[in-house]
Amino acid sequence: MAAGIAHEIRNPLTSLKGFLQLIQSGESAKQIYYSIMSEEFSRIEIILNELLLLAKPQVKHLEKHDLNQILTQVKSILEPQCIIENVQIITDLTNGPVFVKCDENELKQVFINLIKNGIDAMPNGGEITIRSKMEDGDAIVEVIDQGTGISEDKLAKLGQPFYTTKEKGTGLGLMVTYGIIENLGGHVQVRSELNSGTTFQITLPIPS
Question: What value does the CA radius of gyration of the chain take, rounded to a whole number of Å?
Fold first, then answer.
């Protein structure tokens, strides 16, 4: 994993070094240089932030939180981005509260990651459905997009460090997501079909 981290950070650093050398050589600095350099700095920042999430110690004292309330808050957080991207979030939540033991902020991060992935998979806009239900003593959340879908051979690699289906992704966001859910005693399932969208299903135990 250390080699993967070094590779992911070295790529934007190499690009930045190249642009600095161009500027130092007397090449007139064009606005596009600064734009690309800014994007590369942002990429490094994203990688480091996701690594910090991975390095965060496991939470020892989990508390009961209403899953439906967390999902409603996440929808509100992402609504401005959805408006810009022409994406509508539709919620289909089970009646009444659904309590799970979790770190509230970490679980919010899980659903933010999944919904943002759905937004990225729909460059022309569309709908993302968030559905919650209870089944066999578990709480289940489905995040369903209308995006480009993921091929079967790529599905098995999701959650691996630095594996991503996105052009500018790092794969760390999904790795963090899988780790958080597994630490809560849950699991993640993915169903997808090319050109028909993807469904991420999160299953969490309901405390007695």
Answer: 19
